[in-house]
Protein 1
Amino acid sequence: MKRLICCLLLISTLSYGDDGYRLWLKYDLIKDVAKREEYARSFQFIAVSNQSPILMNAAQELQLGLQGLLGKSVPIITDLGKRKGGVYLNEHKDFSNHINYKDDGYAMSNSDNIYILANKGVGVLYGTFALLRYIQTGRSLTSLPLINIPKVQYRLLNHWDNTNGTIERGYAGESLWKWYELPATVDPRYRDYARANASLGINGTVVNNVNASARFLTAEYLEKVAALANVFRPYGIRIYLSVYFPAPKVIGGLKTADPLDPEVRKWWADKTKEIYKLIPDFGGFLVKANSEGEPGPQDYGRTHADGANMLADALAPYDGIVMWRAFVYKADPKADRFKAAHEEFTPLDGKFDKKVIVQVKNGPIDFQPREPFSPLFGNMPKTPLSMEFQITQEYTGFATHWVYEAPIFKECLDTDTYVHGKGSPSGGATVASVVDGSLHNYAMTAIAGVANTGSDRNWTGNPMAQANWYAYGRLAWDHTLSSEAIANEWVKMTLTSEPKAVKTITNLMLKSREIYVDYNTPIGLSRPWSGVHFAPEPWQEKSPRPDWTAIYYHRADSIGLGFDRTATGSNALAQYRPEVQQKWNNPETCPLPYLLWFHHVPWTKKLSSGRTLWDELCTRFYTGADSVGWMQQQWAQVKPAVDPAIFADVTGRLATQHKEAIWWRDSWVLYLQTYSKQPIPAPFPKPERTLDDVKRLSEIYKLR
Ligand code: BDP
C-alpha cells in the first residue's frame, strides 16, 4: 500500500512538458473559441485536384493542422464538384501564365472556397503550409496573398554530417542520418525533417559534410542516400552530395584525379549515371576543393573552373548542378586571408560552365558574429554566385548562447555593393540582388544554410535555435521579410500567442545578436582561431599556420588593436567598390561595428562615440555581459505564458550564457590590458580573476 502511494505520488509530480519535437508545426488547439469557429467555417472539406504523393501530403498536413488547431476533423475529397466552403488544392500547369513555373510559386484566394493554385504540386504544398501559418499566427483569411513566388530558385540546407554520425560544428547531438541502419530501416523522423523544411520552402539538402568522405559515392552508400531521397521527394526536397575531389583515385582505382584526364572525366560521368539511376531527381554536387587541406584541381595545376566544369560535364545529361565553394585561403604568412577568395575567383569569372554556381560565405573570413560582406558579391557578373550562411552556431555560442540570426543574414543581404555606383536609379545593388539574380541576370540562383539540426529530441539543442532554422528558411524564400516579422511569427507558432509574452520574446530575439557581439567580438574584432571555437583564447599564438592563431586576426600591440586593411596595410579594401571603400577607409568615419576589421586603432584614440578605443571596448564587453542578465530577467517574465519544460530549459541555458559572457569579457579585457596598459574605466569593476585564471579555464576545454 505504502509503495502504491509512493508510486502515485511520483506519477502526479512528473509533468511531461513540450519536448520541442514538433518545432513550429505544433498545431495546438486555438484557445479563443470564437476565433476557432470563425476559421472552422472555411474548412468544410479539403479537395485535391489529383492524388499525387505531394498533393496528398499537402492535404494530410492541412487535415492534421486543422484537427489540432480547430479540433475539427475535416474530410479529404477528390472531387470538388460544386462544393463550397472548403479548400481546393489545385495543381494545374496552365497557371504558368500567372505563376512562374520554375520558381515553385503559388497563388491563394478566398471566395466561395479557399483556393491554393500552383503549377507544381510542390507549390500547392508551400501554399498549404502558408495557409496553416496564417491560422497559427491568428491572421484573417480574407487577405490571403494572391501570388507568392520564391526569390531564389535553389534553397538548400547543407549538413556537415559524417559517416560515423558525428557532425562537424554540430551542437545538437548526432547526425539525423543513421547510415548504418539505412536503407533497410528508415527512421520516421526523416519525414518530419522533410515536413519542417517544406513548410519553409526549402527544396534541397546536402546530406554530408563538405569535408567529404569518398564513401558516399560507393554503391553501398548511394543506396542509403537513395532511401533518404525517397522520403524527401514527396515534400519537394532534392538530395545533393558533397564530393571528395580525389574520389576517382580513392574508390575508382585511378592513378590521378586530374580534372582534364579523360579517364577521370569518364569515371565521374559513369558515377553520375549510376547516381541518377538510383535517384532520378538527384540535385547535384557540392565541392570544397583546395581549401583547408582538402584536395582539388590545383593539385594538378588546374583551376577551380577546370574542376567545376568537369563535374558539370558529368551532370550535362541530367537536371543537376555543381555548387563550387569559394571558401579558400592559403597558409601564407604574408597574405591576408580576407583577400583570398576574391583573388582566386574573380579571374575565373565567365569561365564556369552554365551548370556551375559558386557558393560564397556571407563574409570574407568565416561566419564571424559580425563580418563585412564578401567582396566577391558584385564582382562576378558572369558567374552565378550563391550565398552560404551558417545556421549552426560555431562562432555564436554553440547550443548555449541565445543568438537569433536573422539580423546577421539580413545585415549582409541588405548591404549595398555599389555595383551601380552612388545614387543609381535602380536604388542600390544589394547583396540580395546579387543572390536573387536580379542584378546580373544570373541564369540560376541559390542560397545555402549550414544546418543546426541533430539527433536531440528538439532538433537544435537550444530550443531558441529552432528560430534560426526557421528564419533561414523564410529568408531563403523571401529576403525582404524583416527579422522582426519572422521572429514574431515563429514565437506565435512555437512558444506562445499571449501578446505580452510574444512582444517580450521577440524583443529579446532582436537584441540577442548585438548583445553577443558586444561581449564576444565588439567593434569589428574577429576570432576564427583554430580549435573547437568554444573557449576564449585571444592569446593563442602558436599553430602550424599563422592564420590559425588569434593574434593574426586582432593584431594587438603596444600601439593599438585591429587589422589594417587600408592601403597602408593589406589593402583588402581595394576589393570593394569605391563607394564602399569610402565608407570604411577612414578610421574617423568608419562605422564602429566594422572599425577593427579595417583599421589598426591606437588605444587612446577618441572614437565617434566620444570614448577612447580602450574605454569603448571595455564598455562593450561589460554592457554586453550585463545584458545577458537583462535577458534572464526578461525571460523570467514570460514564465506563465510558455511551456514549463521549454521555460526551464532556456532558463538553464541563459544562466550558463551569463557565466560564459563574463568569461569572454574577462579574457579579452585582461589579455588586451597587457597591451593597452590602461585601467578598467569607471563604473566597471575589475575582473575578479587574473589572466592566468582565464587561461587555465580555456585549457580545460582542450583536455582529453
Ligand atoms: C569553418 C569550420 C570548418 C569547416 C569550414 C568550411 O571551422 O569546420 O570545415 O569552415 O566551411 O568555419 O569548410
Protein 2
Amino acid sequence: MIKAYTQATFIFLFICFTAVGNYVFAQSDTAIDKRVATLLAKMTLDEKIGQMNQYNGDWDATGPVTKDVGNKLDEIREGRVGAVLNIMGTAHVKTFQDAAMKSRLKIPLLFGQDVIHGYRITFPIPLAEACSWDMDMIEKAERIAATEASASGINWTFAPMVDIARDPRWGRVMEGAGEDPFLGARIASARVTGFQGDSLGSTDAVMACAKHFAAYGAAIGGRDYNSVDMSNYTLWSIYLPPFKAALDAGVATFMNSFNDLNGIPATGNSYLQRDVLKGKWDFKGFVVSDWGSIGEMINHGYVKDNYEAAQVAITAGNDMDMESRSYINNLKQLMADGKVPVSMIDESVTRILRKKFELGLFDDPYKFINAQRERTSLNRPENVEFARDMARKSIVLLKNDKQVLPLSKDLKTIALIGPLVKAKKELKGFWSLDVDPKENVVSLWEGMQKQIGPLTKMLYAPGCDITDASRIGFADAIAAAKQADVVVMAMGEKPDMTGEAKSKSNIHLPGVQEELIKAVAATGKPVIVILMAGRPMIFNWTADNVPGILYAWWLGSEGGDAMADVMFGAYNPSGKLTMTFPRSEGQIPIYYNHYNTGRPALNDNDLFYKSAYIDLPNSPRYPFGYGLSYTTFQYSDLESDKLTSTIKDNETISFSFLVENTGKYAGEETVQLYIRALVSQPLRPVKELRDFRKVRLLPGEKRRIVFTINRALLAGYNNNLDYVAHPGDYQLMFGSSSADIRLQKTIQLVN
Ligand code: NOJ
C-alpha cells in the first residue's frame, strides 16, 4: 500500500531504504505533489497531451494495430508519448527509455504489460488460482510476477482483472476470480498488494491496474465486448465490490472497459469515472482507456468522430488514451475550441506524473533496466517450486467414487489417454507471456513419469484431437486402456478457446472427446478424467459415469508436476470452485447468489408455477464453493459466545464449531460462511458468502473454527445505495460449499 509518511518517519525510512539498497526512498504525497506541480508548470500543452498518450510497442500487439503511423521513437523523443505497452526485456525497454531521455523535459516512460498470471514463470490462470481460496498464495504469486516483470523493465501491469463473471460462455472468465463479489474483493486486494509490494517506490514493485471498469463481465449473451444492461443495485452489490477493494488496497491505476453500460460506453461514462471512482471513492491514481476504446465510441454510435470521442472521454474522467490516438490528435484543438478546459488536462497529467514520481522514475529512469538483475531474477528455483504449490492448490477434485484417487505407486500399468497428455505450451493458457515451452513447462506425462514407482509402466495414446471429429485414434486408446490397471484421460479445450474475444456458445467438452471417454470407460477399467480449460465446461456423461474427475484449468509451467502430485497423493486436493458449473448452456447465466423469486423452485421435480425449466433442473452440475478432498470433514457442535442471538449497535456475536478430519489423509478444508437476510427491501440473495476459513487437519484431528458476526458483515445496499445492515432476521449458514450447508443459525439484528 502506498503510505503517506510524516517527516520523522521520512528520515527514518530514508536511513532504512538507502541501507537496504533495493529501495529508493518513499516520498510523502506532499513532496511528490510539489515536484509534480513544478514540472507541470514547465510543460507545454503538447507535452502535457503527450503524457496522456500510450502506444503499443514494436513487437507484439494485444489489440488491433494502427497502421501507417509515424516513427514511435521519434514521437517519444518529441515528448508526444507518456507510456508504452508490450515492450519487454531490459535491452528493448532501454531503447525506448533512451528515446524519452532525449525529450526536452526527459519525462520517463511507463512500460505496461499484461502480466496476468506470471511473467517468466507461468502461474495457473487467475480463475484457477482463485479456486485455492488462499489469499497469501495469490498475493505471493503476484509478488513473484512483479519481481520478474520489474527485472525485465516493466513497471505497470494491466492486472488484476476483477470483473465478476456469471457467464461461462464469456472467454474472459479465465482472467478473473469467478462469480462472487466477496471472494472477488478479497482476491483483488491480495493481487494488488502482491504486485505493488510494500511501496510503489520499491525496485521490485509494479503498478497494478484494476480492470475493466465496469461491469465488463456482464456482457449480454456472454459475447465479448457486448453491451451491459443492469440496475445500479446489481452494479453496486455484485460488480463494484472488487474494484473498491482494489482501490482500498492502494491500486495505482484503473482501466475502463469496452462495453457500454445502460446506454453509455464505460470509457465515456462520467458516472463511473468522475462520480464514483474519482468522486465518491476519491481515487488518486489515473484511469487508462482500454485498447482503442476511446475511438471505439464512434462504433458504439455514441460520438461522431475522434474529436468528439476525445472530448467525451476526458470529460468523463479517462486520463490516458491507449492506442486510439484520439487525445494526441484532438485535445489541443478541443482546448482551442473551448471544449476542454486546460484544468482538465492538467488534472489528468498530474495524476499520471504523480505515479511516475511514486515509482521513483524521475530519480532513476533506468531503475527497472538492469540486465544483471534481469538475469538473476527470472525462473528462480524457489519461485518455480512455489508455482508448483500454487498449481496443485488450484486443482479441484470434482468426483472420487470408491476412492479411485489417489493412485497407488504399485500399479503395474497406467494408460494415459487424451489430446492433452503431453501438452506443454497449452498448460500456460491464454495471456501467458512468451516462454519457451520446452524448457519451462512440465507436461502431465512428464510429471507422472517422475513419480511412478519403479515397476510401473505408462502407456500413451492420444485417442483424438481436441476439436477434430476423427475417431481414428479410438482403437489404439481402447487397446492401451485394456492393458492398463487404471486409465488417466487428459481432455479439455484449446488454450485459445478462452481469453479475450474467445466467447463460445457451446461450452461442452469439444470435439469427440466425450465419445472417447465413453469408449474407454466401456473397457470396464477405472477411469480418471483430468479436464483442462479456462472456463467451466459441460461434460454430463463424464460427470455421471466416470468415477474420478479433476478440474485442472490451465495450471501454468509447473502444471504437470502439480497434477502428478495430486494423482499420486503427494498433495491432497483442496480447491473449491469459484464459478458455478451448469448442466446446459440453457441455464446460463447461473450463479449461487440469486434471489428467491415469488415462486421458488424448491424441489426440482415440482415444476408447476415454479421459476424453473420444464426440461432441466435448476440446480447446477457443480455449485459455487464445491470441491472434494481425499479425506472427509465433519462439522459439529455449533455454539455461540452469547446467550442471546441478537446483535445491537456495535455488538458482535461469535459462533464456533468443530471441524474434524474423519478420513485417512491430511487435508485442507475451506469452511464457508453464507448469510441470508430473510426479509429485506430491496431483496437480498438466497445466499451471500461473507467469510471463510482454511483449515488444515491431520487424520482424526479436529479444530474449533470461530466466525465473528457484526453489523458490517450483514450489510447490503439499500434503495439509496447506502451500505447498511437492515434490522431483521439473518440466517447464518456454515458449509463446505454453497450447496452443502452443514450448520446453521438465525440471528436478529436490532436497531
Ligand atoms: C485489451 C484488453 O481488454 C485489456 O485487458 C488489455 O490490458 C489491453 N488490451 C492491453 O493488452
